[in-house]
Amino acid sequence: MLRFPAVFSVFRFVELENQREKGFRGMNPCLAGSGVLYLQFYHDNRIHPMTEDTKKSRILIADDNQQNRELVEAYLSDEDYEIAMAEDGQQTMDQVRDFEPDLILLDIMMPKKSGFEVCQQLKKNAATQNILVLVITALRDSTDIEKAVEAGADDFLSKPVHRLELLTRVRSLLRVRHLTHERDRLLAYLEEMERNMK
User: Fold this and answer.
1) Are residues 96 and 120 in the same domain?
2) How far apart (Å, rounded) are the C-alpha atoms in residues 193 and 172?
3) b/e for 160-193, b at 16 or more Cβ within 10 A?
4) What whole-number percentage of the chain has pLDDT above 70?
């Protein structure tokens, strides 16, 4: 499988024999199975191998306290996100299936399934393990934090939540999610190119 460390918004792979094609800004060699491919950088979006991903980021707010859910939703209201709610652990898992969030703002102390259980199940499942989890909790004991880390939480916020801190964490995590998605699309494209050249 090919591995490439960078993510490019506009790129094209060509065979060595086609390296004289006009329009490139630079080339980096990388080994690909039996042959050498070159990465050429283009500014012509018409040759971008993938379509632009313009869908809104989806955020699931999971908390058994309605006031907490509504407060977090209000903090995010000026941002261009799609938002869904869950009031217990089982509903959170159902919403993950139906809503397919990019990020979950997850309370720990919830009925039916705790936040620990939800996070652990998500991270053990290949279909959901890349969903980012921001734990928002009133728990401050170091053992609780360690337990959340072991369950796979990506970041933490303590209650009461402050708007600026929440927005900063959410934006940072969604940026990571976007780059991860772009990396996966890039790798899939490279593998397809490698198969077609065999």
Assistant:
1) yes
2) 32
3) eeeeeebeebbeebbebbeeeeeeeebeebbeeb
4) 69
pLDDT tens digits, 67-99: 999 999 999 999 999 999 999 999 999 999 999
- What is the model's pLDDT at position 189? 72
* Average pLDDT value for the chain: 75
**Are 112 and 130 in a shared domain?**
yes
- For β-strands 12-15 and 57-62, DSSP reports them as unpaired
Claim to verify: residue 126 and residue 91 sit in the same structural domain: yes
Can you give the pTM of this predicted structure? 0.66
- Could you tell me if 96 and 129 are in contact, meaning their C-beta atoms sit under 8 angstroms apart? no
Residues 43, 63 within the same domain: no
Q: Which residues pair with 32 in a beta bridge?
A: 35
State the residue range of the domain holding 123.
57-178
With respect to residue 27, please indicate whether it lies within any of the assigned structural domains.
yes
Report how far residue 10's alpha carbon sits from residue 12's, in angstroms, rounded to the nearest whole number.
7
C-alpha distances out from residue 162 to 63, 104, 110, 157, 171, Å:
16, 17, 21, 9, 14
Q: Are residues 156 and 71 located together in one domain of the fold?
A: yes
Residues 21, 113 within the same domain: no
β-bridge pairing 103-106 and 57-62 = parallel
Helices 66-76 + 163-197 axis angle, to 10: 70
Number of domains in the chain: 2
Instruction: Say if residue 89 is in the same domain as residue 170.
Output: yes
